[in-house]
Amino acid sequence: MAIQSPQRPGRVRVLIIDDSALVRQVLTDILSEDPMIEVVGTAADPLIARDKIKQLNPDVLTLDVEMPRMDGLTFLQNLMRLRPMPVVMVSSLTEAGAQVTLDALALGAVDFVTKPKLDIQRGLTAYAADLREKLKQAARARVKPLQPSTAPAAAGTLQYRTTDRLIAIGASTGGTEAIRAILEQMPADAPAIVITQHIPPAFSKPFAERLNKHSRMTVLHAEDDMPILAGHAYVAPGGLHLRVQRSGARWRCRLGEDEPIRRHRPSVDALFDSVASAAGANASAALLTGMGDDGARGLLALRKAGAATIVQDEASSVVWGMPGAAYTLGAAQQVLPLDQIAHALLASTTQGPG
């Protein structure tokens, strides 16, 4: 019979999986500072974790990638196939770590936090508040069983006016896969797309490169003053705001290291506000899954400027924070499941201003 540990009502029950005794202890200490989190156990490798999941029935896992006996990605793949549950990856802050983390998100991990190679205790402690919030949000996330990969769906036979339209997309938690799903459906000659995903600096370029492999469009890691062209998508670099600036009859990318907006840099609000000013009714925008409310006010500004505005619906969102906040503000003309958003964005580009 499964053994249940004592539980206080409403507390998020966390199982920590990491081969480092130091990391397990540091994570236990910083998570236990939050009265709404209970660390129900730790495991030094996935095989121990497998048994403890059955015994302790946690709400959410933290999972390292490099571990003995079974690597974290193999464990995650098995978990999402057999017993889907929320997982937050604890990843190395390196480009190699970024690639593995993006693999984990593709397999169904809800979110990730980064840990430095050196002075792990101080590094993790610096992210303590962020980690605690991510775990509480992850515990409420919608996690679906891992599905076999399929070929991208065709985008249809709409006729596109690619010289005077612009699409803007913003996302956070769960957004790396949501954005990929949208770009997979875009034709090669789609209107230009500008994208802000909350992501650390070391992760944004590998993210753009991964999107490029999954899209008929050319996906680029945005650079300052880069021209915005049809058939191209531009991903905001981690640590920099991406804005759109009109230059004659064209648009260009502008990157800024100014203050974070609602704690984020890049910020979706920064992107959406700039698109509202630079493109107005010639824009279409979608706010996807994510924690918090970044992008909600920017989407409202876009709607007031005449742009077509969409939010991802609650059922298909990993976390309905950002799209829910925009819906509450009245910023959304349409609330759609993820698999309908690409078509709606494309349709809006053929129908004139929103």
From TrEMBL:
Residues 13-130 form the Response regulatory domain. The keyword Hydrolase applies. The modification 4-aspartylphosphate is found at D64. GO terms for molecular function: phosphorelay response regulator activity; protein-glutamate methylesterase activity; protein-glutamine glutaminase activity. It comes from the Bacteria. Phosphorylated by CheA. Phosphorylation of the N-terminal regulatory domain activates the methylesterase activity. GO terms for cellular component: cytoplasm. It is an enzyme of class 3 (hydrolase). Belongs to the CheB family. Involved in chemotaxis. Part of a chemotaxis signal transduction system that modulates chemotaxis in response to various stimuli. Catalyzes the demethylation of specific methylglutamate residues introduced into the chemoreceptors (methyl-accepting chemotaxis proteins or MCP) by CheR. Also mediates the irreversible deamidation of specific glutamine residues to glutamic acid. This is Protein-glutamate methylesterase/protein-glutamine glutaminase.
